[in-house]
Every structure is written in structure tokens, then in C-alpha cells.
Design brief:
S-adenosyl-L-methionine, Rossmann fold, protein methyltransferase activity, 9 strands, elongated
């Protein structure tokens, strides 16, 4: 069976199962099965796939049609210039979080070299991406999940996502900031913020992520309520990601817990997504902060 025919049949199969972007999903999966770059498929449309190649592909197609995330099937995902290893131990990094990295890099460019904390680090995506952009800082990724931290350590050691030589990135098991006393220049947090109702109605792929990485309580902000009073003791600047309908409430919570200066940033679809909170909006450190 020729590659083009396999691609068309897989695309049709994915369409019947309601997958978004079925052609792209089929291309990514077939490229993975054949160990080819996706665009390399276009140069081999007339290639006859062998029986062993089809045997590799078929179970992958079944898994994706059952709405298992493609990142779990291929084992990797792209994030902010990195190739990260992915599996069900941690949340698959989302494209919108790349903007959190950009805002954090802007903040860190105006800070003296110091400690940067990432709470709920998961795959380690945020500190590893920041280490490439602002290598003068030290990074510590915190997570309550041992399995997630093992994945973050793997990503830290892998050349496609490792920090630059000389940049220190460490990992620690911790319930939010419990026991953390060293002062940090910035804290980033992409904590679980979905409500039970949002989890129940989410796309099937989302429910393959660990519930620990999704459930934010009745209004999605339970973990932030615990984090903020801990953070105010050791960090003057926070950058948090949440749902668009939560940003106003999270901003108010930050002000309540000692961060009077807040700013809401939008995501790639112009929806409010990130809350930047400071104890002191020193314009000398960041002239863009209002």
C-alpha cells in the first residue's frame, strides 16, 4: 500500500472519530512510525509501505483514534524551541504557556542574577525554556509528583531540552512552597486550574493527563490560595497562568495576599490568561510594567 493511500485512509479514519486537524494528526503519526520528518512524507508519496511498517503504524492509529494525546504516543512535544519528552506522568505543555515563558524572560532580563522558582513544574518545560533565554539565573522546579520530577530530570539531561552549560537547573519534590526559604527573583506557576465540571466536559485528550495536574477545586483557584501566602514571604514577583475567566479573581487574590500591583496579559487568542503580580512595580527593573 502506497504512503499516500495510507495517509488518506488514516485521515478519513481520524475524521470519522472526530479528531481535530485529522490530516495533520495523520501526517505526524505516520512520520513518527516511519522515523521521517513530517514534510519528508511529501517526497515519498509513491513509496510502498512494507508489512512490518504497517504493523508498527496500526496500533498507533488505534490509540490516536481512541483520543490518546499524540504527544503520549510519539513520546515528545515541541515547546518554546525545545523538544520535550512526554508521557502520562505530567501535563502535556500547552502552546499558550510559551507566552508565559516570553513574559518571564522579559521580567528576568531586568533582574540581577538569582533564583527562579517554578511551582508545579511537570515536564520542566518552563524552567528549561527560561534557562535557554536567561542563562544567568538559577532555576528550581518544584512538584508534588515524583513521576513528574523524574520526567523533568530526563528532559534536563536530554540534549534537545537541556540547559546551557553552566546554567544550574534543579528539581525538588515539594507541596507548593512548603519548606522553601531562599528568596527568589521570580516565581512562575502553571498550577492545576480546572474545575470538576470543566474536567468532565474537556476534550477526551485532556483526561489522559494526570488528575493531579488538572483539578484546581471548585472554582479552579484552590492551589493559588495556598501558594500566595507562601510566596509573599520569599518572592517579590509572580507570573501565573490560569483560565481566562479566572484572571480577574486571581489578580484580586494576589492583591489580597500582598501583591498590590498586578497586570493581566492575554494569550495568542487575545483572551486574558496570565497574571503578573508584584509587591513593588519598580519601573527601573521593568519599564513596561504599568
Amino acid at each position: 500500500m502506497k504512503l499516500l493511500s495510507v495517509l488518506e485512509a488514516t485521515t478519513s479514519h481520524f475524521t470519522k472519530h472526530g479528531l481535530p486537524s485529522p490530516r495533520l494528526q495523520a501526517e505526524l503519526l505516520i512520520a513518527h512510525a516511519l522515523s521521517l520528518p513530517r514534510l519528508g512524507l511529501y517526497l515519498q508519496f509513491e513509496r510502498e509501505l512494507t508489512a512490518p511498517e504497517l504493523e508498527i503504524l496500526r496500533p498507533l492509529v488505534r490509540r490516536r483514534a481512541a483520543r490518546e494525546p499524540i504527544q503520549h504516543i510519539t513520546g515528545t512535544t515541541s515547546f518554546s524551541g525545545l523538544t520535550l519528552r512526554c508521557r502520562s506522568a505530567a501535563l502535556v505543555p500547552r502552546p499558550e504557556t510559551e507566552l508565559l515563558v516570553e513574559h518571564a524572560a522579559r521580567i528576568l532580563a531586568h533582574q540581577p542574577a538569582g533564583l527562579v522558582l517554578d511551582v508545579g513544574t511537570g515536564t520542566g518545560a518552563i524552567p528549561l525554556a527560561l534557562a535557554r533565554r536567561q542563562p544567568q539565573h538559577r532555576y528550581l522546579g518544584l512538584d508534588i509528583s515524583e513521576e513528574a520530577l523524574l520526567l523533568a530530570q530526563e528532559n534536563c539531561a536530554h540534549p534537545a531540552s537541556a540547559p546551557p552549560e553552566g546554567t544550574k537547573v534543579d528539581w525538588k519534590r515539594s507541596d507548593l512552597l512548603h519548606g522553601q526559604t531562599e528568596v527568589a527573583v521570580l516565581l512562575t506557576a502553571n498550577l492545576p486550574y480546572l474545575t470538576p465540571e470543566e474536567i468532565a466536559s474537556a476534550e477526551p485528550e485532556v483526561r489522559h493527563d494526570p488528575i493531579l495536574a488538572l483539578d484546581g477545586g471548585s472554582d479552579g483557584l484552590d492551589l493559588f490560595r495556598r501558594l500566595l501566602p507562601q510566596a509573599t514571604l520569599i518572592c517579590p514577583t509572580l507570573l501565573c497562568e490560569c483560565s481566562p475567566h479566572q484572571t480577574a479573581n486571581l489578580s484580586a487574590l494576589a492583591q489580597q495576599f500582598g501583591y498590590p500591583h498586578t497586570r493581566i496579559h492575554s494569550d495568542l487568542t487575545s483572551r486574558p490568561r496570565f497574571v503578573e503580580a508584584r509587591r513593588d512595580p519598580d519601573p527601573c527593573l521593568d519599564p513596561h510594567f504599568a
